[in-house]
């Protein structure tokens, strides 16, 4: 559980750091205004997955930190003034082989797996501070739906688990001068229902290429601990992380 404790500390530090940052002499594109605002982003996500999957009495170690796998993600924001509604989606999967442990399983046994991880979020965001600024700070909260699927080779079978968990976090957006901008965000989830604990941190560097069209490079890290010891399905210190290449249109 040391990694879990370290993850909580990283999350707290990231959320506090999100309120800092430099300033440019232009109005933040993502600052609130009396007119309606919308933003749509699509991402090609090069991700990896790492964690331990407890399936009843058996344990499968999932992990491939040496390579990245093409996946997809997207986000839509819409609102007016200080309020934003946010919808996010991401999905990734990993096929490989890993150690299998359980009653009657010989030591050193490995099994082929195909593990998938999909999330969907609905959030409400509220901007703080002045509109006439080159930066924007927002607080957000909402719900995250998670689906995990595990297909194992041979007669081991298939497993899946779905849950809903609360999420709360913050985002800081700042214009860097010229066409460049940066966004930093993070959130914590679980605790009340759903997972035992989740922590996510991310950062995105964008550039305006023409009118409302922007390109961006982002990194995202999500750690999840789901299920208690002895549960029929448990995902322990599981991590999905990777690089996003995005196309955004905002008005």
The shape, in one word, is elongated
CATH homologous superfamily assignment: OMPT-like
Instruction: Give unreliable regions as ranges.
Output: 1-27
Q: Which structural class do you get from the secondary structure elements?
A: mainly beta
Could you give the order of the helices and strands? HEEEEEEEEEEE
Cα-based radius of gyration, to the nearest Å: 20 Å
**Oligomeric description of these chains:** single chain
Residue-averaged pLDDT: 82
CATH topology: Lipocalin
The CATH architecture term is Beta Barrel
Strand fraction band?
over 45%
* Count of alpha/pi helices: 1
Total beta strands: 11
Integer count of domains: 1
CATH first level: Mainly Beta
Q: Separation of termini? A: 44 Å
Largest beta-sheet details: 11 strands, antiparallel
Percent range of helical residues: under 10%
Structure commentary:
The chain contains one helix and eleven strands. The chain is mainly β and 251 residues long. 6% of the residues lie in helices and 68% in strands. The protein has one helix at 2-17; strands at 36-55, 58-63, 69-80, 83-101, 110-128, 135-152, 157-177, 180-189, 197-210, 213-226, 233-250.
């Amino acid at each position: 559980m040391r990694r879990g404790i370290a993850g909580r500390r990283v999350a707290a530090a990231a959320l506090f750091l999100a309120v800092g940052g430099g300033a440019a002499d232009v109005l933040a594109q993502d600052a609130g205004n009396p007119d309606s605002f919308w933003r749509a982003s699509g991402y090609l996500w090069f991700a990896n997955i790492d964690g331990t999957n407890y399936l009843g009495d058996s344990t499968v170690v999932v992990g491939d930190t040496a390579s990245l796998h093409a996946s997809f993600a997207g986000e839509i924001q819409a609102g007016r003034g200080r309020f934003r509604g946010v919808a996010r989606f991401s999905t990734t999967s990993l096929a490989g082989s890993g150690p299998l442990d359980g009653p009657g399983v010989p030591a050193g046994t490995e099994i082929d797996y195909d593990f998938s991880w999909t999330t969907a979020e609905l959030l409400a965001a509220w901007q703080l501070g002045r509109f006439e600024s080159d930066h924007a700070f927002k607080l957000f909260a909402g719900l995250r739906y998670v689906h995990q699927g595990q297909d194992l080779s041979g007669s081991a079978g298939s497993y899946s688990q779905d849950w809903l968990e609360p999420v709360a976090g913050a985002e800081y957006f700042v214009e860097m001068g010229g066409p460049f901008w940066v966004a930093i965000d993070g959130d914590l989830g679980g605790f009340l229902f759903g997972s035992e604990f989740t922590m996510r941190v991310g950062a995105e560097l964008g550039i305006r290429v023409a009118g409302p069209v922007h390109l961006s490079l982002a990194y995202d890290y999500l750690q999840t601990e789901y299920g208690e010891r002895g549960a029929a399905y448990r995902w322990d210190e599981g991590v999905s992380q990777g690089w996003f290449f995005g196309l955004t249109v905002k008005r």
